[in-house]
Design a protein that fits this description.
This protein is mainly α. It has two helices and no strands. The protein has helices at about 5-15, 15-40. The radius of gyration is 11 Å and the shape is elongated.
Length: about 40
């Protein structure tokens, strides 16, 4: 999964209304999850 897909998945999980309020936090969280997954794969 790309980081963009992680972000889109977070949007679906959280809901569009919450996403507008928490966009930055969700993007940061999604990026950290992607990073953790990549580290585990290495």
């Amino acid at each position: 999964m790309s980081c963009l897909e992680c972000v889109l998945h977070s949007v679906k999980e959280t809901g569009i209304g919450n996403f507008k309020q928490e966009k930055k936090a969700i993007k940061i969280g999604a990026a950290l999850r992607c990073f953790a997954v990549r580290v585990r794969k290495l």
